[in-house]
Amino acid sequence: MAASKKGTGGSQLAQLRSGLRAAGVTGPKPKKGKRQDAEDSRVGQYRAQQRRKRLESLMTNLNTFDERVSHSKNQAIGTKTKGAVGRPADAKSASLQQRRAKLLPEYDRRHKSSSFVDRRFGEYNPSISLEDKMLKRFTEERMNRAPKTSMFDLNDDDAELGLTHFGQSLSGLDEMPDVLPDDDDDPGHIDAQVTNDEHFAGFDDAPRSKHEVMKDVIAKSKLAKYERQKAKDADEELRMELDEELGDIRSLLFQRPEQPTETPASEPDKGDTYDAFVREMAYERRAKPQDRLKSAEELAEEQAKRLQEAESARLRRMRGEENDDGEPLLDYAMDDDDDGEKEPSEPRTMRSKFGLGQGLDQEDEDDEEMSLQDDEMGERADLSEQEDVDQAANEVDTPKEPVPSLPFTFSCPSSHDAFLDLLDEHHIEPSQIHTVVSRIRTLHAPNLAEENPVKLQRFLGALVDHVLYRAGQQDTKADDLRVINDLVLHIYELARAYPLRAAEHFVAKISLMQHNLMRGLALGALDPAARTWPRLAELAFLRMCTLLWPTSDKWHAVATPMHLLMAQYLAHARIRSLRDMASGLYLCSLVSSAQRESRRIVPEALNALFNIAAMLLPLHHGKSMHGRSPVKALAEEFGIPTPDFEAPHTLPFTIQSDAVPREKMSLLCVDSCSLSTQHQADLLHMCAQLVQSLAHLYQPSPAYVELFTPLLFLLEIGEAGLQDVAPSLVPCVHTATTNIRNLLERAYTTRRALRLQAHRALSIASYAPKFDQQSFDPSRATDPDTERAQAAKLRAMLKKERKGAIRELRKDAQFLAEERDQRRVAEDAAYKKKMDKIVGGIQEERSEQKQLDRAKALIKKRAGKK
């Protein structure tokens, strides 16, 4: 083993020794003198670094197993192939060192939300020595503390740069008394001091003692102190004079300026204008602090408190008690009793905008109402409560008629029965319900108590039930509709505040109405006792739904079931009387108003209008060739179901005499329709109006021609029949016929039939081959298609990067696992060492105790023998 081979230079041990000796690490060292011992430390650090590099190169040259060389078959002389020589051990140690420097700190800080970063100069730079770091930090600190003045500042009298002498600036020579002035400033006189210093015999006196020098210093300090005190006294005297004249100055400042006399106009001076502007700014009054704005909680609490105070005052007046000052309370001078009892003088749009009183009006008025709906409702929602409180707080000194006393505080009803009991208990008139509801909402505002939102949500259900109760009475009047309109305002505000709870109330009512419809259809669609068509209460509820909830949404929790219910009414309910016909027309008007934004086609409404018009119009024309009426044949052609047309129970509905139709029909007319000529004329007039409304609404539809062609044909036949029977109804039918005819002609001209897309004939696709037959090399991945080759290249790069990322992540995970194992082993070793130390201490104590016990026993034994 010790023998060396030829050409190898000996064994590795011999090579190591020779290498160390050549590098100067081992071998004889020169003796150091005193000067060499005092060599700078930086030179020593440089030598140590060079020695470390030589040792690393020596280790690399000796250990050939740490290199991995890839030999190429055909290697050109003078070329270097990148990656031909690899050092896996060095690469692994470098990667471990890099992970230990970056990944390990991140792993340690994974559960920490804050970190400390040392931003001192050179803290993370190992190439800078400690002395250089301290010197640089000291320099930076001195520069930060130095005054930061600009050398180009024109307002700075002292120049930053100047001449110096022994570190002192020469710029202060002008202030020294021993320096003569410049020749230009010399007046030509010589003072006594210059004569004593410069002239012949002007020598200094005898040397001064320390006592004399100190005496002069004390005198100079006293003189400076006296001058400062004198200046301070002068400032104080001037301040006192200004304080005495302050009154005169203020009188001059705040006196009213005299009217200036007219002077000839002259050009104003810029300087005078600026001075006047500065004086105006000086004379401006300072802003005074005002009270802060109150929050919503404070406003609600204040409103509730005012209502409670008004209620207590009302009760004292009712009992005839006196107020706190001993004076009787006058009931005619207070405005608390009639808070909201007068019918509010609202415009017609506020009362009728909900359509409950004008449900079957003309379409123009309906459009105007719907356009103003959102704005008016939003304003009323924001101002309703404030108006009620203001009416309760303001006094009106005009005499009024005696009215029943209305309390100011009420409990919040949780059900409709409780609400009716409250109205009966206080004998509240229908015109006062709006005021009562406003006061209940004010006293139980959500900001006043935690349970108030729940109370208001229950109260919302009670209000909805009361609307149905008012509309469902047998003797429903216009006053009831006004009450419903007032309640709808409050329902809208509460529904906007609690939409989920309100949706539950409305969906429950819609489900109940659908259940009643199915029960009526099961009983018999033509049975007079079956409640298939909605009555006044249900119609008012559906109208309220179209106002409170968005009807243009594609899907809505309340609006979608409502639309389905109205379509089910129009599709499955059979017409048995004019009352059913009026209900159907009202549902069609709701469909027209609800689909104004979305323009969704509701075929049930169009079919219902076709059947109602066919039953009202006098269609006395000949039979068709197959023995059927032309209207029946037209309905079958377009797929319109007509189960009640020409039925025995609908024959009396045809108009037989003339009557002038009314322009407006109230919702109350739905329940009061009877078999009379006037009601037939009114219903036909409203049917024609609704047909025109839907014709304008569905104008953009591609199926417009198919939708309104049967209606136009029906109205043309009916118009010819009305010429002899009811001439007063001809104008309304003629107007509808003309409008629909014009719209249909426009639809015919603008509609284009479906056809295949016109395009140029495509040529036969020619595909390039995937390889070149002339220079095909199966060992190389060549593709003549550049785009396909680029895509393949990108896929290969992506695959390579993904594999590299996975490999690095696995190495990171392995490194962290090894680090955790090392830490766990170190913790276990430390714990074992600690426990061994504790157990050893206990065992040592136990051993000493046993030795002591044996010694005691031996002493006792010896004492017993004696």
From TrEMBL:
Residues 1-52, 65-97, 170-192, 249-392, 846-866 are annotated as: Disordered. Residues 175-186, 322-341, 361-377 have a biased composition (Acidic residues). One of its GO terms (biological process) is maturation of SSU-rRNA. The keyword Mitochondrion does not apply. Belongs to the NOP14 family. Involved in nucleolar processing of pre-18S ribosomal RNA. Has a role in the nuclear export of 40S pre-ribosomal subunit to the cytoplasm. This is Nucleolar complex protein 14. The gene is NOP14.
